[in-house]
Amino acid sequence: MVTGPAVDRCPSARAALAISCAATLLVLVNFTAPVSTVQIIGAELAAGASEQTWMLSSISVGLAAFLLVTGSLADAFGRKRIFVLGGALLGVVSAMCAMAPTALVFVLARVLQGGAGAALLATGLGLLGHVFPPGPERARATGLWGAMVGGGITIGPVFSALLIKVAGWPLAYWIIAALSSLVAVWAAMTLAESRGERPRKLDLAGVVTFSGALSFLVAALTEGRGGWTRPHVLAFLAAALVLLVAFARAERKAAEPMLDLGLLKRRAFLAATVGALVTGAAVIGFMTYVPIAAQQVLGLSPLASAVLLGAWSGVSFVAAPQARRLIGRIEARDQIAAGLALCGIGQLALIGIGVQSVWWQLVPGLVLAGAGSGIANAALAGLAVQSVPPNQVAMGSGANNTARYLGSSVGIALIAAVLAMAPSGGGPAEDFATGMAWAAIVSAVLSILGSVVVASLRQRRTRTAERAAAESA
């Protein structure tokens, strides 16, 4: 019998872990790259407030719309194949971002970046679920994968802020293009192919209805900051609802659905999905605006604001791999619930930051939220692949990441709407500080409610198990 960690005894497992972590780090660096520089990019591309919101949320649209699609395709046609295609596509569309002449072109390229990143995230986590068996080995691997989420969020804003000082904002996207191409080549030369037990047909109806519904929903939320009763906003909301209903009907009828709706009957799968959705909406959505607030309210530079955000994302990066020590002591569902609760407490600690505040007053709240994020990220990654059958691990990871990035897109639009509706009367800095206080309250409430919901999704005990427990008592 072979013992020891899989990463020490199996070269293919080591390669899969290294490539998956590198790709995840790169996708999250790209995801957060505009967070500290969106105002500079927006000024150069003549983007207004609404267009700048789209610049922040557009990549989430692509991620949310295509994570399930690429997860399903990976299970059907090969995880390595879809991973390599995703890396190559990310290289091409990152170059499009660098050359974008207008805000519209930049936003469209960011949507395509999201689609390419979706292929890397869904297949990367699916590869780990395939090569690492359930238990401590998989927990360690998914913990490292979760750490890359925090690591990418830490590096991205600093990376782009530094490069603006050197050569302007396009350089960040040229570098991302080059690194994405290298990851694609590395994967093509190193990874072994894996797929589900048998080939599956593409669920075209599911792809069209799901991606369309998410796109209309995010469009409505983003445009809603200018007025929720405007005709086109109401039309977007109606279209999203119709397409979601159509998606549910299509998946029930499909012989091989993109998303097996039966998985929603599994409480572990539902807990992972709800946890990811709340993480995106309540945590990532709010934290995306922290560097902007640091610049507008505290007067920090883009680089200093990016470093400040690292108090959240850096702690998340450190906490995620350490969460494996909780295995066997605390269930993954309870780790997610605890992580979300800690995020909520950290967000509440950020209330009251104003123009008279100094940067270090944000640090305690950011550190608490970062610790919560790290614990939740590690547990979410593990539960996403543990809660589905072995031949559907890419679907499970795709569904989990879809929920996360749908949540982040919704969260960015929600915070933008809260900022727009917050009471005003002072100067721009004072008004933004008031808006961020309200945003912190809304985000904290969502985090804590999410924690309660996830904690309540305990596995039902069967009558046989209940009878056995009663007899042993």
Notable characteristics:
MFS_dom; mainly alpha; membrane; 77% helix; Growth Hormone, Chain: A; transmembrane transporter activity; single chain; 0% strand; MFS_trans_sf; globular; disordered N terminus; transmembrane
- Give the mean pLDDT: 84
Q: How many runs of DSSP E, i.e. beta strands? A: 0
Q: By CATH's scheme, which homologous superfamily applies?
A: MFS general substrate transporter like domains
Strand fraction: under 5%
Structural class: mainly alpha
Poorly predicted parts? 1-10, 462-473
Q: What's the helix-strand series?
A: HHHHHHHHHHHHHHHHHH
Number of helices: 18
Major sheet size, sense and barrel closure: none
What name does CATH use for the topology? Growth Hormone, Chain: A
CATH architecture: Up-down Bundle
Helix content: over 70%
Overall domain count: 1
For the record, the CATH class is Mainly Alpha
Name the shape in a single word: globular
Radius of gyration computed on alpha carbons? 21 Å
Q: How far from one another are the termini?
A: 37 Å
Quick rundown:
This protein has 18 helices and no strands.
Structural write-up:
By secondary structure, the chain is mostly helical. The protein has a single domain, classed as Growth Hormone, Chain: A. It has helices at 6-9, 11-32, 38-44, 49-77, 79-98, 103-131, 136-166, 170-190, 204-223, 231-253, 267-287, 290-296, 302-322, 332-348, 363-386, 393-421, 428-456, 463-472. Helix 14 packs antiparallel against helix 17 (428-456). The longest helix is centred in the first third of the chain and has 31 residues, at 136-166. The radius of gyration is 21 Å and the shape is globular. The relative contact order is 0.14. The model is unreliable at 1-10 and 462-473 (pLDDT under 50).
